[in-house]
Amino acid sequence: MDDKIQATLPDEKVLAESEIDENFKQLFKQLAGPDLEISVTELQTILNRIIAKHKDLRTKGFSVESCRSMVNLMDKDGNGKLGLVEFNVLWNRIRNYLSIFRKFDLDKSGSISAYELRLALEAAGYRLNKRLHELLITRYAEPDLALDFDSFVCCLVRLETMFRFFQAVDVDRDGVVTFDLLQIRLYPSDLARGRGRFPQTRFDPPDPV
């Protein structure tokens, strides 16, 4: 029998600006510039500069698409950019992903194999069935069937987005959700942030790829 699909999503509780460390606030000001917000392209530059310093990680760098997915997930006010609090949440999330990646890179290759990915996903709170696991490998792995760090982060961000989307519309928690097709096309970002509600049409959980 195939594994049951389960997800324990990261806590959405965020710190108030007054609770954020002063050193982090100064770092954010330097990174964000005069408008004190971080755009998709600015996030890409920041993450690629940081990841380039970690020589033990195999990576091609974060793509614009990956960074846009991160911004969409964390952008609670819908302006397409990350403010201080939103960036703080993402920063801590990526630090946690890095810790998981290094822990389950068992052979210290700088990448995550298919076997290591299953262990890493479970540590991150995702228990997936064989079919979804194979889909993730197909979508995010390199030709050697291993994931670079940037692909690993993108995979986790997409998983969280899809599970939050599903939980937002599964109001009775029965594992089956309903929606109007036109509305799902109009409001995907609201769904990812848990703000959408839809009328009755049967819909099975989406694949996170």
From TrEMBL:
| Keywords, comma-separated and alphabetical | Calcium, Cytoplasm, Membrane, Metal-binding, Repeat
* Superkingdom to which the source organism belongs: Eukaryota
Entry's SUPFAM superfamilies? EF-hand
**What Gene3D superfamilies does the entry give?**
EF-hand
Query: Is-annotated flag, keyword Repeat?
Result: yes
Q: Where in the cell is it found?
A: Cytoplasm; Endomembrane system
Task: State its cofactor.
Answer: Ca(2+)
Alphabetically, the GO molecular function entries are: calcium ion binding
- GO cellular component term of the entry, any: endomembrane system
Q: What is this protein called?
A: EF-hand domain-containing protein
Biological classification of the source:
Eukaryota, Metazoa, Chordata, Craniata, Vertebrata
